[in-house]
Amino acid sequence: MLKKIIFTLIGIFLSSLFTLIIIDLILFFFPVNQGMRAQSVNKQNPVFRFEPNRNSQYSKNWNFDIKNTVKTNNDGFVNDFNYNEKSKKKLLSIIGDSYVEALMVPFKDSLNGRLQKMASEKRVYSFAASGAGLAQHMIWAKYSKDKYKSDYFVFVIISNDFAESLAKYEKSPGFHRFKKTEDNKWNLELANYEPSTIRKIFRKSRLAMYLITNIKIHNLLNYQLQFGVNDERKIYVSNFQANYNEEFWKDAKWVTEIYLNNLYKYSGVKPEKILFVIDGIRQNIYDTEDKVYLESFWYNIRQHFIKEAKLKGYHILDMHEEFKKSYINKKKKFEFKTDSHWNSFGHKTVTDSIVKTDLWKNFIK
């Protein structure tokens, strides 16, 4: 009886293994998301970057309804062009999160690709990754200043940048975040990242990558970060929870103050050489009857951020107004049907808005 049970279990294991191998092989014929392969981030290598000189397949959702081929350059950033630290050409650095990283659109259609084409002989470099917040902006700004001598900066500000900048709320590895010290000051805390052996093995399996990056099976665990929100309603405005409490609001204002007071020091340029591109509340542009946005976190922090940044001499590009004007004229949406990131038309609209600014005109002189 024991022998029969053992052989039965072995048979089940081998047949299951064979089935998984067949599925893995079949998935080689589909555009499975291959992942970006972030490099180790630690005290010795503190700047978040990806595996350099790599072409990879990006796709989203179980049916691959968004797909694109992505290139990481010689410095490990998503860009079709290599970066040259010896170049003396004027440089504009674009810094942000997944909206700047722009994995879902061809590089030539992205904000970075379009601006590089318009820059003629000058340089446009991008420094970005999904999950990066305002604190990480400062790290990349300093990196761009120290290594490439950047002359101008564009920072794209998104609704979740504030929460993702606070070590109090966000723990995912690889990025720097603000943390309050005991004397009520602040420091930049790095959450180290080291790809585990099992992660490296999974990277080689199409089935594992399909489950993790396309299906996002980990989300089925229903683990949710509550950024100061206790309300059971799950109302989102611009891909971030609309509801917030007083503690989180104070934390977001504190982050804004630190960021605006120190960004020009890290970037090494005066505020007049920095442009903030503030994402709009696009769902309200499409549905003006929906008033929930007026009480949302993103609506209120946008107002606060814009006011404070202007007082400190920074340039502001409010994309809510730019998107609104475009939508009235063309009735075209700026994001994908199944993804809130800017689509190619969204990137074009942002690009067209940037090239009208004084900062861009000074850059291309």
Radius of gyration, taken over Cα atoms and rounded to an integer in Å: 22 Å
Beta strand count: 13
Low-confidence stretches: 222-227, 229-233
The secondary-structure element order is HEEEHHEHEEEHHEEHEHHEHEEHH
Number of separate helices:
12
Question: Which structural class do the helices and strands define?
Answer: alpha/beta
Largest β sheet strand count, sense and barrel closure: 5 strands, parallel
Distance between the termini: 85 Å
Roughly what fraction of the amino acids lie in strands?
Answer: 15-25%
Could you say which overall geometry the principal axes of the C-alpha atoms support? globular
Helical fraction equals: 25-40%
Q: Strand order across the biggest sheet? A: 4-3-5-10-11
Descriptive keywords:
single chain, 365 residues, alpha/beta, five-stranded parallel beta sheet
Structural commentary:
- With 365 residues, this protein is α/β, with parallel strands linked by helices.
- It has 12 helices and 13 strands.
- The strands form 5 sheets. Strands 4-3-5-10-11 form a 5-stranded parallel β-sheet, with helices on both faces. It has a two-stranded antiparallel sheet with strand order 1-2.
- Helix 4 runs parallel beside helix 7, helix 7 (246-267) packs parallel to helix 9 (297-311) and helix 10 (319-330) packs across helix 11 (344-354).
- The chain is globular, with a radius of gyration of 22 Å.
- Residues 222-227 and 229-233 have low confidence and may be disordered.
